[in-house]
Amino acid sequence: MNYWPLAGIAIVVLGFALRFNPLLVVVSAALATGVLAGLDPIAVIEALGKAFNDNRYISVTWIILPVIGLLERYGLQQRARAVIEGMRGATMGKLLVAYLAFRQLASALGMKDIGGHPQAVRPLVAPMAEAAALKTHGDLSDAARDEVKAMAAATDNVGLFFGEDIFFAIASILLIQGVFEAAGYPLTPLQLSVWAIPTAICAFVIHAGRILAFDRRLGRAPE
Amino acid sequence: MITYEWLYVLAGAAFGVWAALSAKDRRWGSAAFWALLSASFLLGSHLSDLANGVLVLALVAIAGLGGLKRSDPPTTSPQEREAYAAQLGNRLFLPALVVPLTAVAGTLLYNYTPLGETGLFEPRRETLILFGIGVIAALIGAMVWLRPPLMAPAEEGRRLIDSIGWAAILPQMLAALGAVFALAGVGEIIGGIAGGIIPEGSVFLTVVVFALGMAGFTMIMGNAFAAFPVMAAAIGIPLLIGQYGGNPAVIGAVGMLAGFCGTLLTPMAANFNIVPAALLELKDQNAVIRQQVGTAVPLLVCNIVIIYVGAFWLWN
User: Fold this and answer.
1) What is this model's ipTM?
2) Which of B132, B154, B263 faces A66 most closely, judged by CB atoms?
3) Pick the residue with more confidence: B20 or B69?
4) Which of A112, B11, B14, B54 is least enclosed by beta carbons within 10 angstroms?
């Protein structure tokens, strides 16, 4: 077997480690992999162009930015903070655990488009978490604020990934079904999606525990 | 029938406006980058594969040479924002909710009522198309309500897209990398190696290699969807199900979730890990991944246990 195409993977790993521009790393890896697999360089560029073109739908979602930007111009982030400041007993831990539960449940019901980084985390969840952390712990360093915002983004990801597969009509479940059916093991989407539940529960317990521990650690951190 | 082409025209127009505004600001690198992306959306379906490939190389050259910079279009001051927020109250959240509600409620209506028989939308494309419709509705509603300067949404959108910069097209580029990897047979090679290192006869170790392989290959590809067919064909189906008689539903479902643990750990999953770091203006590009390690690693262990218990103990 020709193992040379794996050099593309090495380029990806090294390129990211050495902090080259990721677009440059990815395209270099694609070109190297294709050529080392014995393809004509022009054919590799054509394959890259076709695949980039076929996947344009992925980048369509940026059309939401004018809406978010316009609302931010009129104080959306400030309003999100004010809501949290007005709540008695709101802590960053409680807020993010509640968001984790909401995100998991909504995704499990097929509503994975509620939430997401441009639509929800940047304008709402991150400012709310930051406001709650400031409220309970007083002034925080820039590094600690960044950690809070990053935890808000991480919570959105965990909630989505370990909620969405409980909904049976989702791409990943259909992909599993397709692969297994082709191999002679017909399964219904529902048979698969119920097995996403144990992992979803583990994910909630682990991540919620980490959020609360993080909140306590922020309280102890010397300023 | 409304198809993805309509969305591409919309996105092409948005990136075209951002290119023009960047040019007006004499930010030539950004102007060229967004103009090329606009051309990809507007003309991509009519260009040859080679022309699209050259367009990709040009985009990457601009980004690689550091041609993209953050922009600072005129906007409201923090004090003005506080005043607006106090004045407008919670109604500010409404336009932001219009978009997901249109996408979700519209998808449900379209799939579970006779609306679907109208054939209004391209099949299986309705959610993203409805997302586009929601964006237009929210934008019109916000413009009528807030009466900002006409160019405000374009300028505010440009501020955000410039803060994301080249990361905006990284997910799409990674999908293209996946296609080239598939063409070069990388999946088969990895599957062959993974299949070769498993000790004979140990169900538990086979489960471990399967789950770690899913996570590891997902980290490399940035996407569990690319890893799943490879690991299922190399280990999941022939060994865990065929040879050891495990429950296919558990192996499939939880195997995919083991891959999702890998997604939490890799900069290659750009839209989940790198884009938010840019959007939130974090100093460390990998800050989101750092917060996820402590969840992903124990959860991967949970998945291994769930596969072993669910697919073998409870099944036999």
Assistant:
1) 0.88
2) B154
3) B20
4) B54
